[in-house]
Each structure stands twice: as structure tokens, then as C-alpha cells.
Amino acid sequence: MRTLMYACGVAAVCGALLASPLSARQELALNMHDGLWQVATEPATGPCSKKLEFKLSVDAGQISYAGLMPVNASGSVDPLGVIEIRVVRGDETVAAKGLVRGDVASGEWVSPAKNCTGSWVARRT
Fold first, then answer.
1. 40-66 burial by CB neighbour count: b if 16+ within 10 A, else e?
2. pLDDT by residue (tens digit) across 68-97?
3. Which of 66, 78, 107, 120 is the most exposed place for a label (fewest CB within 10 A)?
4. pLDDT, position 49
């Protein structure tokens, strides 16, 4: 019985020691894209012709709008740099996808209501 309790105790300590660095690595991976990002959009198809620039914030992999306009942005960037985001202003919704590499991100966006598509580029500020 004593041997079983000792083995369980050793297993618990070893498990805790192995789990801690993994959690730290996961946290680091989630935070590696954190910061303020300056985004520039470029329309490609449809009636959308206005280029836009705005700021987004990334905190622990979660994306939000960091400007003064009445805009709601939500989405995420995973540890591999894959981005998915939704931006809403009034009754307009834009969905965007992309990829982060270092301090630069880029991708494509679509506005189904206006039948527009385009590209975007972001730089960490």
C-alpha cells in the first residue's frame, strides 16, 4: 500500500512538472501576436471602392477594434498565425481571413451584403 501511495505521489509531482512548461509554452504561443496592428484594406471586386485604414488590438490571441469609430471587431489569431475576424459597422459585416508572419499579416476579406471582396495588410506598431 505504501509503495502504491509513493508511486501515485511521484506520478502527481512528475505530471505537475511536465504540465507547467507546456502551459507556459502555450501561453507564450498565444501571446506572440499580441499588440496593436495598423490595418490597410484594398478593395478588389464589387461596388466597394474605398480604401480603409484602422487599428486592431490582439490580446492573448483575441482580436478587437482599437479605434474611435463605432465599430465592433472580433476574432482570433492562433499560435500558427492563422487569423479569422469579423468586423461590424452598423448593418455592414466584413469577414476576413489571413496569416501572420512576424510583424506583418495579410489576407482577404469579403462583404457579403455589398458583394465586395478585397485584400488587407497589417503591420504591428
1. ebebeeeebeeebebebebeebebebb
2. 999 999 999 999 999 999 999 998 899 999
3. 78
4. 87
| CA pair distance 116, 42, nearest whole angstrom | 11
Exposure on the CB side of residue 112, measured as CA atoms within 13 A: 7
Q: Say which amino acid occupies 6.
A: Y
Half-sphere exposure of 98 (CA within 13 A, CB side): 23
* Nearest CA-CA partner of 58 in 42, 41, 81, 40: 81
C-alpha cell at 65: 477594434
Is the entire prediction scored with pTM above 0.85? Answer: no
Angle, vertex CA 47, rays to CA 63 and CA 51, nearest 5: 45
The label of the residue with cell 507547467 reads 20
| Residues in the chain, pLDDT under 50 | 1-20, 22
What are the domain boundaries of the chain?
Answer: 1-31, 33-124
Structural class in CATH, domain 33-124? mainly beta
Which residue is associated with the grid cell 480604401? 51
**What's residue 31's pLDDT?**
79
